[in-house]
């Protein structure tokens, strides 16, 4: 994202479901709705994201999510987190937990970039992964091509 935008806005949050599902259809539907709304609302060309599926002590999975968008168009998450909550509840009425964690990252600001990477790296932890059918993914990411 930083190869396309000199400033990006990163929002980190968690999504819980009431019942276990063998696939990630709910996160796919969520992504489609959220990205459509974001692109229309903020006139965005691209939306970056990372999500991971975890299942630990609870009987149902939950998702950790990091959203990355053009920081020149958005620099505070309030309206977006409200929309995230609305969309997630429309899908299955489950819970949304804002992490109250967001970053405004500038391309050459090493310190802020490292802080955001540290926070997002939680999604890569091994614990809680793998409790799913073979064809179901533990992770999903956007595929944004780097520019030079």
Describe it.
- The chain is α+β, with helices and mostly antiparallel strands and 148 residues long.
- The protein has one domain (7-141): Ribosomal protein S6/Translation elongation factor EF1B (Alpha-Beta Plaits), CATH 3.30.70.
- 30% of the residues lie in helices and 27% in strands.
- It contains 3 helices and 5 strands, in the order βαββαβαβ.
- The chain has helices spanning 25-42, 78-92, 110-120, and strands at residues 7-16, 48-54, 62-70, 96-106, 139-141.
- It has a 5-stranded antiparallel beta sheet with strand order 4-1-3-2-5, sandwiched between helices.
- Strand 2 (48-54) and strand 3 (62-70) form a beta hairpin.
- Helix 1 (25-42) runs antiparallel to helix 2 (78-92).
CATH topology, by name, is Alpha-Beta Plaits
List the domain count as a whole number.
1
Kindly report the name of the CATH homologous superfamily. Ribosomal protein S6/Translation elongation factor EF1B
Distance between the termini: 12 Å
Q: Tell me, rounded to a whole number, the average pLDDT.
A: 88
What's the level 1 CATH class?
A: Alpha Beta
């Amino acid at each position: 994202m930083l190869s396309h935008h000199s400033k990006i806005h990163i929002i980190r949050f968690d999504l819980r479901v009431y019942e276990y599902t063998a696939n990630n259809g709910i996160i796919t539907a969520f992504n489609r709705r959220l990205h459509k709304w974001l692109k229309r609302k903020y006139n965005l060309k691209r939306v970056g994201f990372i999500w991971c599926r975890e299942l630990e002590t609870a009987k149902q999975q939950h998702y950790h999510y990091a959203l990355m968008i053009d920081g020149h168009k958005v620099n505070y998450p309030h309206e977006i987190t409200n929309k995230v909550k609305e969309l997630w509840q429309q899908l299955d009425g489950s819970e949304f937990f804002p992490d109250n964690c967001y970053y405004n990252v500038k391309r050459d600001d090493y310190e802020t970039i490292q802080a955001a990477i540290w926070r997002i790296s939680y999604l890569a932890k091994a614990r809680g992964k793998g409790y799913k059918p073979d064809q179901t993914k533990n992770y999903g990411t956007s595929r944004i091509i780097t520019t030079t």
